[in-house]
Amino acid sequence: MGKRRRRKMAAAISSANWAFVAAARRGGRPWGTIPLSCSSGPNTRKLVLYSKPGCCLCDGLKEKLQAAFSLSGPDSLHHVTLQVRDITTNPDWERAYQYEIPVLAKENSDGKEEILPRLSPRLSVEIIQKKLLAAFS
């Protein structure tokens, strides 16, 4: 990865982190339901990340998702909101995902969740962005 690309990714992560720091300062949970987009219309789609505290794979994916959501351009995820769910707060989630986290799911138009294929930790932010866009098209 080149210097320029690393700087771009670091800037994207830094700007995305600001939303989470601001939420924590307001007394909210930094990894709760946080829209990472500006739109909230009828075309808004929902992505759910099942995670738990202390999960390094989960933390790595959260960082990459933050960076992917902060990228602009024709492939931006401006119409998608991300909700992070702590599986330790719900026995059903914990039973279902305790050995699988991090788990990404998209909410379909009927309100049902569809589990998405696992994203490799080695994927670039740009590839993650493209895969998420493909999942919603």
Automatic annotation (TrEMBL):
Under SUPFAM superfamilies, the record lists: Thioredoxin-like (SSF52833)
Query: What keywords are annotated for this sequence in UniProt?
Result: Electron transport, Transport
Instruction: Note one Pfam family from the annotation.
Output: Glrx-like
What is stated as this protein's family in its record?
A: Belongs to the glutaredoxin family.
The protein here is known as: Glutaredoxin-like protein
Source organism (scientific name)? Brassica cretica
